Amino acid sequence: MASALLLLPTTLALASSPFSFHPKIKSWHQSPRRLPPPRRLPLRTPPKFSARDQEEQPNPPSSSVAVVPDEGDGDDRSPASEGDAGNGGESVEEAQQQQQQEVDWKTDEEFKKFMGNPSIEAAIKLEKKRADRKLKELDRQSDVNPVTAFFKNILRDSLTREKERLEKAEEAFKALDLNKLKNCFGYDTFFAVDVRRFGDGGIFIGNLRKPIKEVMPKLEKKLSEAAGREVVLWFLEEKKDDITKQVCVVQPKAEIDLQFEATTLSTPWGYVSSVVLCVATFGTIALMSGFFLKPGATFDDYIADVVPLFSGFLSILGVSEIATRVTAGRYGVTLSPSFLIPSNWTGCLGVMNNYESLLPNKKALFDIPVARTASAYLASLVLAITAFIIDGSFNGGDNALFIRPQFFYNNPLLSFVQLVIGPYADELGNVLPNAVEGVGVPVDPLAFAGLLGMVVTSLNLLPCGRLEGGRIAQALFGRNTATLLSFGTSLLLGVGGLSGSVLCLAWGLFATFFRGGEELPAKDEITPLGNDRYAWGFVLALVCFLTLFPNGGGTFSSSIFSPPYFRGDI
Predict the structure, then answer these.
(1) Which among 202, 290, 520, 550 is most buried, taking Cβ atoms within 10 Å?
(2) Which ranges constitute the DSSP H helices of 50-200?
């Protein structure tokens, strides 16, 4: 069963989404390939999945996974002759022919071409044939050695159990009969003009006749009744030759649930990992805070300085987490456990979640990440303004932290903090009045938490992979444009890393390899978002850009940027 699931289009989590859609895959009937059967079966007409083909085919096959006959072969064998061959024993020639035909699907390139789209049913059938072949090989072999016979019996039992599991799985995972499903489409829901196979379901090309919120439940119920089991629908747009077509993708719900189950993080190990990362993040925040204490600080000074910073971080994380889960619950989306990302530079690099259920529409894909980032921005801003009102400036009072220039050196992603609190020295190396020579620039701990919170939120708003910014870009511009933006962002972060910024390099590697790829499509990818959400996206993009790339403090040492305001260590 495990090997059969290799055909599933999965994506690793945290690493990736469980499946993806590519509507432009060719139909099976357009370029049929030969699928080697274990025995010669009566000739069958290959399934036809276009509307015109279905009119020419009065008796559609009940199963979508057909065995394509050998070309030019007309000597069919009757079921009686097959039964006689099975009962009376196979000749050597027949055994050799069967062994040649039963090619393992893992190495059969012809089968891979024939498949076109992954099918659980086809994979299970071929795995079952492979187990049958191995059992027959063991039955034909006779060994008087008791040791080898013992191990062969163990292998035979294992193959028998595997075959039984595959037979049970075969009953659960049957490909949908597209000819039956096509009759469910009509003028009052979605008018389908063509259909092609996709995995164990299909892609119906046509056009909507009513709003999706009215069509979805009605059509989903009719298709489930026709299929005899629950199905899942996606409404997407397919662009080809500057022509946009509406498509309805239908898949068995059991297979989608299986793919989510295979990638879920809501497991005991997932929750343990979440707790471990949470403890590690609290530790990095505490260590990072100690770096900014004034020389000769006592433990009481550490408590007085670190507690406000620590509390500020927790406030930002808590507010954003509550806003995210409330918004996800409003759309009926299940989230994985939250995973904090520790960092010895900023203490924390944000929170990550995976979607563990289907998104109902693009609004959910947009609103959930916006809820996290917008609430984090607001909480950070409130902390910074509160500190400014209390102290009259961002530089704090007796319990101020001292931000050393090394914290900003060669890191444009942190230049926003230095832009607010001011540089340590001027271009000539003279220490500026707002700094303390040999110590750094003072800043209120609560204000520092707010400023760092804005930087970390902006990092997560970069349009890369499945970061919050990547999800927003996918909702606003579609999957193709989001992929291009993701590539460009990864490239820019790589350039920053090669120029000397450790933070650019680390975040670029994390975003590319741990949060890369696309989010799974929403069930409704056709209904537009509306101008108000595009406006929100523009505002967030502007705040992200102004936060990450001001370079007002001259923090980049490269000659192509402005020179730094400090020289060497202090």
Answers:
(1) 202
(2) 51-56, 79-88, 92-101, 109-115, 120-140, 146-172, 178-182
Which are the contacts of 181, defined by CB distance < 8 A and separation ≥ 6?
195, 202, 204, 223, 226, 227, 250
Show the tokens assigned to 539: 């505002």
Q: What is the CA radius of gyration of the chain?
A: 31
Neighbouring-strand partners of residue 524 = 235
Inter-residue contact 139 to 150 (CB < 8 Å)? no
Which range, of 219-228, 343-352, 385-394, 430-439, averages the lowest pLDDT?
A: 430-439
For residue 425, the cross-strand partners are 431
Express the helix, strand and coil content of the chain in percent, nearest 5 each: 50, 10, 40
Residue partners of 96: CB distance under 8 A and separation at least 6 = none
Given a contact cutoff of 8 angstroms between Cβ atoms, the answer to whether 177 and 227 are in contact is yes
Its pTM stands at 0.71
Decide if 476 contacts 537 (C-beta within 8 A): yes
Residue 471 and residue 307: Cα distance in Å, rounded?
A: 34
One DSSP character per residue, 268-331 reads HHHHHHHHHHHHHHHHHHHHHHHTTSPTT--HHHHHHHHHHHHHHHHHHHHHHHHHHHHHHHHT
Is pLDDT above 50 for 570? Answer: no
* Range with the poorest average pLDDT among 68-77, 332-341, 439-448: 68-77
At a CB cut-off of 8 Å and minimum separation 6, what does 280 contact?
340, 342
Distance between CA 494 and CA 492 in Å, rounded? 5
Confidence band, pLDDT 50/70/90 cuts, at residue 551: low
3-state SS of 230-259 is CEEEEEEEEEECCEEEEEEEEEEHHHHHHH
Tell me the per-residue pLDDT of 143-158, one tens digit each, with 9 for 90 and over. 777 778 788 888 888 8
Do residues 388 and 347 touch, judged by C-beta distance below 8 A? no
pLDDT averaged over every residue in the chain: 75
Q: What is the pLDDT of residues 368-380, one digit of tens each?
A: 999 999 999 999 9
The single-letter DSSP state of residue 71 is: T
Distances (CA, A) of 365 to 210, 314, 319, 500: 23, 26, 20, 35
Average pLDDT for 90-95: 55
Position 102 scores a pLDDT of 43
Measured at the CA of 185, the angle between CA 10 and CA 332, to 5 degrees, comes to 45
408, 415 in Cβ contact below 8 A?
Answer: yes
Cα separations in angstroms, 277 against 336, 467, 543: 14, 18, 28
Q: How far apart are CA 365 and CA 349, in angstroms?
A: 22
User: Residue 232 carries which side chain, given as an amino acid letter?
Assistant: V
Task: Report the SS3 class of residue 401.
Answer: strand
Cα gap 400→441, rounded to integer Å: 9
Helices 146-172, 120-140: inter-axial angle, 10-degree rounding: 160
337 SS3 class: coil
**What are 458's two structure tokens?**
């902006």
Counting other chains too, the contacts that 95-102 makes at CB distance below 8 Å and 24 or more residues apart are 95/140, 98/38, 98/39, 98/133, 99/133, 101/36, 101/37, 101/38, 102/36, 102/38, 102/129, 102/130, 102/133
Neighbours of 147 (CB within 10 A): 8
